[in-house]
Amino acid sequence: MSSCGLALAPPAKNVVVYRNGDPFFPGKKFVVNQRRFLTFEAFLNEVTKSIRAPLAVRNIYTPRHGHCVAELGDLQDGCQYVAAGFEKFKKLDYLNHGRKELRGTRNSEGPQVSPRAEWGQAGATGPLHALACFYSSVFRNGDLLSPPFPLLLSKSTSLQWDALLATLTEKADLRSGAVNKLCRLDGTQVSNGEELVNGDYYVAVGKEEYKKLPYFELLVPQESAHRMLWYVD
To answer: What strands lie across the sheet with 181-184, from one edge to the other?
Structure first.
């Protein structure tokens, strides 16, 4: 009976999952079988934990066209997918751009090197003037439903304040319109690029006043709460 049951069990599927909206995440491999995941919900929970998603993963999409995967049986062996929360699918070149940018890092089976550690020769964190590129996560002022979006800039762009605000305006898509200022989580305003700290969290604010809310506490999972340490797994 047991041998018959084993024969009827569907074969394991090997898939790679990327993080929605993050072109530099190299992807995480998963082996999907009945013994490990009895339900699709169990798979989503494991993906949330393994890719260190800013919010619980609730949707799995195909990487090119954003088609939603509804159940475990829809996953195809050897294919790639994009994990997202309740936010909409963000169309990026997950399959090529991220891997191109991360050339020289360890493979996905070993500890993954952070973009910060790659670009910032002075170390994983530090002031902008010591780094070649700047990476941070930015919340939207007064919005406790949307996770922070990644902000990746070259040093030259970061130091051009008008260009940085224009980039923030495009990425944040605030209901109030253009981003007029960038604040730290305590509400103090950042006045120029030299004050930016690589790997920190900020809040994009329009013409309205900064709204002091528990952005970090509510929108970043506890296991990710070590200020971007999920990069150096």
So the answer is: 149-154, 133-140, 201-205, 181-184, 189-190
